[in-house]
Write a structure and sequence with these properties.
405 residues, alpha/beta, eight-stranded mixed sheet, four-stranded antiparallel sheet, 10 helices
Length: 405
């Protein structure tokens, strides 16, 4: 992907303008990111964050609506004539993580942190908005700015779509970036086609019969039953699915029991299931339910299962991915695009991609020369803030390139 992309011109009409405009507002965008970073909010609670966004859009003279998808905000920039529409999306919720960075602008909200970089995403999109509104007399079409809540709980995109975010006007294409601490500053991570997995949620209750620990033969031990179930679930992947089609099952929580001398009567477990192939997704769900039922019967326990399909796989449009490549080369240079492998994480941006073609890509935020990488959702996660104006420039270029295309 580092080769000169098809249709790329070294005399790209927008690149010099956008790089300069992004550089000129670098300090402003970093200040926005830090303000949001200090005040993180969880999904559907992003009231202060929405207010910051609305205030900035109002100052820029951009028409907007708030309360879309509960706490989401949608802005619209109109060029000279309404010919086409492109959408740019930034998620804006934090995660329930205690911040451990000790930076001057660390979170003021206990046990809530922007440990996934959504503060930077908002700053990038606000930067792109400021750049694009200054050029509205020089392009045709419309740019829809989507500030989405509740990505971390896989609910914000669906809520915004239900509230009509993809109508009046309907975008022809959509793009989103996500910071990546493993990619160097000045690069992006890109992949055509399937990029991230479908996400399903698993909640299991194992119901036994409690009693005295000295008389286990008179009881049905829910802990022993649950322990066996955890191990049996591992065979769903290893022995019941096609090995060339990625499937992941992880039990993340397990709790049960009251005392060391009491046989537990109930155990609760929660987990996640990740797939990419639609047939595998259906098959895995069916097998998991069978394994739960059979394991419970083997121990005399009853197993209740709540299985929810949360997020579809994230599949980038090949054409839109190539468009991102062109924009990255124009803003960051010809060696800026890195092809990344398929990733078993997920993002509810996939709901948007089910409706219209688009592309989700990673923005490198690794400090040059840094050997220590604090991953996403880590209490010590941070970014090289020089990535923010770069992200703003790429988003602005994508919008202009899409409208011209």
């Amino acid at each position: 992907m580092n080769q000169r992309p098809e249709g790329f011109s070294s005399k790209d009409r927008w690149s010099d303008i956008l790089r300069k405009k992004a550089k000129d507002i670098s300090a402003e965008l970093i200040a926005i990111r830090r303000e949001i970073h200090q005040n993180p909010e969880l999904g559907f609670e992003e009231i202060a964050t929405s207010q910051i966004i609305c205030k900035r859009l109002k100052e820029l003279g951009i028409r907007f609506e708030e309360g879309i998808g509960k706490t989401g905000v949608v802005g619209l920039i109109e060029g000279k004539r309404g010919r086409g529409t492109v959408a740019l999306r930034a998620d804006m919720d934090g995660v329930p993580v205690k911040e451990e960075t000790r930076i001057p602008y660390a979170s003021k909200n206990p046990n809530v942190m922007h440990a996934c970089g959504h503060d930077a995403h908002v700053a990038c999109l606000l930067g792109a908005a400021k750049i694009l509104i200054s050029l509205k007399e020089r392009f045709n079409g419309r740019v829809k700015l989507i500030f989405q809540p509740a990505e971390e709980i896989d609910s914000g995109a669906k809520a915004m779509i239900s509230d009509g975010v993809l109508s009046d006007p309907k975008p022809d294409s959509i793009f989103a970036l996500h910071v990546n601490p493993e990619l160097d500053l000045g690069t992006i991570g890109l992949r055509e086609g399937p990029m991230m997995a479908a996400i399903d949620a698993l909640r299991i209750s194992v119901l036994g019969k409690g009693g005295h620990a000295a008389t286990p033969h008179q009881c049905v031990d829910a802990i022993v039953s649950a322990s066996s179930l955890v191990m049996n679930l591992q065979t769903v992947v290893s022995r019941n699915t096609d090995p060339i089609k990625p499937v992941l099952i992880s039990i993340g929580t397990i709790s049960g029991g009251e005392a060391d001398n009491i046989i537990a009567s109930r155990v609760e477990m929660r987990g996640t299931v990740r797939t990419i192939d639609p047939d595998s997704r259906k098959r895995v769900q069916r097998i998991i339910k069978r394994v739960c039922k059979d394991t419970g019967e083997a121990f005399g326990a009853r197993v209740l299962i709540d299985y929810k399909n949360l997020v579809p796989p994230l599949i980038n449009s090949n054409e839109m991915t190539r468009r991102v490549s062109k924009s990255s080369h124009a803003i960051l240079g010809l060696n800026s695009v890195k092809e990344i492998p398929f990733f078993m994480g997920g993002d509810d941006f996939s709901f948007f991609l089910q409706e219209i073609p688009g592309c989700y890509f990673f923005l490198g935020t690794k400090k040059p020369g840094s050997r220590v990488i604090h991953e996403l959702h880590n209490g010590r996660f941070d970014i090289d803030e020089r990535a923010i104006p770069l992200g703003a420039g790429i988003l602005a270029h994508l919008a202009l390139l899409s409208l011209e295309g």
